[in-house]
Amino acid sequence: MKNRTLIMVGGPDSGKTNFLARLVAHLRDGDGKLRAPDLPDDIQYVEEALAYLMKGEFAPRSHNTTDELSGDITLDVREVDTGATATISVPDVSGETWDEVARTAEISRQWLDRVQHADGALLFVRVLSELNVTPLDWVNTAPLLELAGPNPAYAIPSQVLLCQLLRLLQENLGTGLDTRPRVGIVVTAYDLLDTETRSKGPLSFLRDTYPLFAGMIDNVDDVEIGVFGASVVGGELADVAFQNVYLEGDIVESGYVVDDTLIPMEQVGDISRPVSWVLQFQNST
């Protein structure tokens, strides 16, 4: 079977590192569709992130420079039901790198090659991130901008940056593939949403919170898009009561994924579900 390559894309504080650490624990010790019993030795930063989760803390956000590669991991994965195997390469670039790519619409030749040779991607969006930038209220903000001068500086809204990243994937992902590449949108920290919002699904959340980005998802034809909600531990570790319960259990039994590619949508404990879907394994659902 040909090697299948997956890239992870997301700005700072998008939840990539904690998701990857939790995914590695699941592939090694979990009972999901995918297994990776023999993990490589050169995954120090993932092991460090996993160590945080094991002691009841989320891994802190990395502060790598825009030129620094925060990890290049190769996982030999086997699909449990069919025995199908694949080598998944996960070049996990720092959030600052992808943020700069989205802002400038420029990407190095090295990383463009990675995107073009990938079979699929996971694009991460974090719920209630402190780094989220909402669009300006132009009606009420206009007078203030006039006082600021002819060229006021303001932050680019998060949904615009997400659109830029999705456009990069749309135009370059999977060059030469004989099938449409897939992009899984992973809404992380899904447990932070209120019960009603969670019940409507991650795609509904995106439509309410990032309408421009959701509109692009609905109208992209070059790639197939699936939306997932993810909670790597199943709750808020800052809640002492939840943390105590979590620490008494097994990390591979915590957390969940909400699969919004299905009708009706489904909540599963298999944290590898978005990976299986993106890589188009036969039994990804």
Automatic annotation (TrEMBL):
Domain of life: Bacteria
InterPro entries for the chain: DO-GTPase1, P-loop_NTPase
Domain Double-GTPase: 7-278
Pfam families per UniProt: DO-GTPase1 (PF19975)
Record's protein name: Double-GTPase 1 domain-containing protein
